[in-house]
């Protein structure tokens, strides 16, 4: 899944950069831009690129944080901050999905088409709510994995026999080993 998202974002970025550079070169030589430069960039390539980058940053836990607050917080406070962060992200994504869906319905009802390409605008407008809903699903599944992992780790620390954990479940002991 990570490779697919990375490939999608990289492909969108490559297409956008290539067409933009070609547009600049053609415009400086001929004085006329390539057709649909703005439309293709903003409606077709920017959306998957932005969402792919956002998902990859979420996977890598590369969110913008205030280091002295996060680093100085106790583990339980960090866990609460992670839950609050995820809740805010889900609310924001839900609002984005709702507004994107409403906008897509409006574009479809009006029958809008791109000036340069002649392609229906509403097709790309559905990409925003779709990507937002998929991202919400990922954030929820990520939270579920964290909760189940935490319960397994807690069970191992509480003296619960580790053989009562599901087969293949990893148990963190907090020990570091040099292997």
From TrEMBL:
Subcellular location per the Swiss-Prot or TrEMBL entry: Cell inner membrane
GO MF, any single term: transmembrane transporter activity
Region (Disordered): 154-179
Record has Cell inner membrane as a keyword: yes
Transmembrane feature ranges: 42-60, 80-101, 121-140
Entry keyword DNA-binding: no
InterPro entries referenced in this protein's UniProt entry, alphabetically: DctQ, TRAP_DctQ
Coiled-coil annotated spans: none
Pfam families per UniProt: DctQ (PF04290)
Span of domain Tripartite ATP-independent periplasmic transporters DctQ component: 16-147
Keyword annotations of the record: Cell inner membrane, Cell membrane, Membrane, Transmembrane, Transmembrane helix, Transport
GO biological process: C4-dicarboxylate transport
Domain of life: Bacteria
A GO CC term assigned to this protein in UniProt: plasma membrane
Membrane topology according to the record: Multi-pass membrane protein
Record family assignment: Belongs to the TRAP transporter small permease family.
Name the UniProt record assigns to this protein: Tripartite ATP-independent periplasmic transporters DctQ component domain-containing protein
Source organism: Brevibacterium yomogidense
């Amino acid at each position: 899944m990570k490779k697919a998202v990375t490939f999608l974002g990289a492909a969108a970025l490559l297409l956008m950069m290539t067409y933009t550079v070609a547009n600049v070169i053609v415009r400086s030589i001929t004085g006329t831009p390539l057709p649909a430069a703005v439309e293709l960039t903003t409606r077709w390539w920017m959306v998957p690129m932005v969402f792919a980058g956002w998902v990859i940053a979420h996977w890598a836990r590369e969110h913008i944080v205030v280091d002295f607050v996060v680093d100085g917080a106790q583990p339980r406070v960090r866990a609460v901050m992670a839950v609050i962060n995820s809740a805010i992200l889900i609310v924001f994504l839900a609002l984005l999905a709702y507004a994107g869906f409403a906008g897509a319905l409006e574009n479809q009802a009006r029958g809008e088409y791109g000036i340069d390409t002649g392609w229906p605008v509403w097709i790309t407008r559905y990409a925003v709510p779709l990507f937002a809903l998929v991202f919400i699903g990922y954030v929820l599944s990520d939270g579920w994995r964290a909760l189940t992992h935490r319960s397994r780790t807690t069970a191992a620390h509480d003296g619960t026999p580790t053989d009562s954990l599901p087969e293949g479940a990893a148990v963190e002991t907090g020990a570091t080993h040099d292997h």
